[in-house]
């Protein structure tokens, strides 16, 4: 290999491409702010403490319900820790989503559980189980909340209900463990991995899915109150906003090039919010949502660290 080829191979094209795309998204959002500055200036922004506090509280509760869902998963596969250790492992691993690749969330939690003597195969199964049910819960919320709106854009007559029923039926079919195995194992075979055997029942999947749906629903309600605390939003939009949060979050999560879904989540959220408010206002609210959610996550990680630290000292 020549010197030029070595330089080309070492040059971080992928990283540059990833950050270039993120910058393009934010440049587009910045252009929207500039083009709609009059809308932003004339918007009735405020900060009402009661809905802000209620929204923040509900969002925090939603996080702990997600921890509870992960705890139930670990019970099902036989790797459960006590709840304090479970919460610590879950919250610490969340910091990994702010690194490129998103895999650091899984690697971090895998390492933490392996250090506690849990088996690799069981940990992998638990992470897969959690990821599938979490994404499907968010997808279910998005489908129920946004399908009526989306289909009406296509069909103004509003013939969305049969489509919704068909989509829900298909959704619950692919949730069955045997169906999931048939979907994922061919992919694993292509990747040279061993086939996956889901040692959980369909009822287990449905129960964990329900807990995750509850978490996303409370998070969506908290999101509504947060938005409403800044600019008044009719109660009629609570379901729409819950779906907007869920869809933007999962698209940000699966966008592996964007640390913490940076740019992707904001772009999707702006697109959805702009259907119920001016585009410039939607940009401001999407950025404020990022700040709000990040502060909550960092604050909870700090709180869990202190509780875990002092709890460990007392155990000694």
Describe the protein.
The chain has one domain (47-315). With 316 residues, the chain is an all-alpha fold. The chain contains 13 helices and no strands. It has helices at 3-10, 13-35, 37-42, 49-77, 83-94, 103-114, 120-154, 161-174, 177-190, 202-230, 238-254, 264-273, 279-315. Residues 1-11 and 151-156 have low confidence and may be disordered.
Name the descriptors.
single chain; 316 residues; mainly alpha; 0% strand; globular
Topology, please?
Elements: H1 3-10, H2 13-35, H3 37-42, H4 49-77, H5 83-94, H6 103-114, H7 120-154, H8 161-174, H9 177-190, H10 202-230, H11 238-254, H12 264-273, H13 279-315
Count of distinct strands: 0
Count of DSSP-assigned helices: 13
Order of helices and strands: HHHHHHHHHHHHH
Rg from alpha-carbon coordinates: 21 Å
Number of domains: 1
Query: Mind summarizing the main beta sheet?
Result: none
Strand composition percent: under 5%
How do you describe this structure in short?
The chain is mainly α and 316 residues long.
